[in-house]
Amino acid sequence: MTRWMIIGASGMLGTELTARLGAEGRPVLAFGRRELDLRDTAATHRLVTALKPDVVVNCAAWNAVDEAETREDEALAVNGTGVRALAEACARTGARLVQPSSDYVFDGTALDPYPEDARPCPVNAYGRTKLAGERAVLEALPRGGYVVRTAWLYAATGHNFVRTMARLEAGGTAPDVVGDQLGQPTWAGDLAARIVDLVLSEAPPGVYHATNSGHTSWYGLAREVFTLLGADPGRVTEVSSKDFPRPAPRPAYSVLGHDGWRAAGLPPMRHWREALRESRVLAAG
């Protein structure tokens, strides 16, 4: 039976993926940051070499987008250099590697969903470091590396937009939310399931876009959260990105295409509204 190794197991995706594999009775080795810090490249090599997993999923990342603008070297140490060390260790042991990545590798100027082979052009430091990780995996593991780009991730744990909106609604706040950034809200539970399906299907290595289908704005997502909580969505006010200047520029259009799933013999992931409704994230508080 396939032996899985999860790095970054305490994060949103890592938690969902570890739980899913465990529920399916699959052997899984889960490591949080305390057990393995990707910045320690020697430790990464030692651990992968000693445990010899069949599949490694790297859910660890520097995700502080704004902080990366002034600390890009630190972000790169995790998202780029650390990933390269992991990919090289997997290449040496024969393990396959799944590297989650981000819509932020694109500049957000497209008018149609980005296909998997679209030319990356990140507009911020975080996107540059995630792109470095992608390239490291594809270079070191041409026959066993999977780059899985996702976007607007949420779960019942961790800091994410859906939980923030639920907290604001519970506190009686009427939030101002950006309406001129478009993307695909993605439930970490659906992403975890898709990663398992991708690996077990023996899909060709390469780049895949794993986001829930459809698209909306942050404003649209906030209204949906309020609606599902039984609150008045009219409490949410639409504003412009110019009203919320941030250190790191955000792509205005982060919609990803899903044509790559045809090669894997898998359907695109379900619509984001259905996923949000059935995720029970809002019920978890």
What does this structure look like?
Helix content is 39%, strand content 15%. It is built from 10 helices and 12 strands. The strands form 4 sheets. A 6-stranded parallel beta sheet has the order 2-1-3-4-5-10, sandwiched between helices. Strands 6-9 form a two-stranded parallel ribbon. The chain is globular and about 55 Å long. The model has no long low-confidence stretch (mean pLDDT 96).
What's the SSE blueprint?
Blueprint: E1 4-7, H1 12-23, E2 28-31, H2 41-51, E3 55-58, H3 72-93, E4 96-102, H4 125-140, E5 145-150, E6 153-154, H5 161-170, E7 176-178, E8 182-183, E9 186-187, H6 188-200, E10 206-209, E11 216-217, H7 218-228, E12 237-239, H8 260-264, H9 272-278, H10 281-284
Helix pairs in contact: 1-6, 2-3, 3-4, 5-7
Q: Hey, roughly how much beta strand do the residues contain?
A: 15-25%
- Residue windows where pLDDT falls under 50 for at least 5 positions: none
- Structural class assignment: alpha/beta
State the share of residues found in helices, binned by percent.
25-40%
Based on DSSP secondary structure assignment, what is the total number of beta strands? 12
- Summarize the helix and strand pattern as letters: EHEHEHEHEEHEEEHEEHEHHH
Mean pLDDT, as a whole number?
A: 96
Task: Tell me the span between the first and last alpha carbons.
Answer: 36 Å
Q: Profile the largest sheet.
A: 6 strands, parallel
Radius of gyration, in angstroms, nearest whole number: 18 Å
Based on Cα principal axes, name the global outline. globular
Strand order of the largest sheet: 2-1-3-4-5-10
How many individual helices?
A: 10
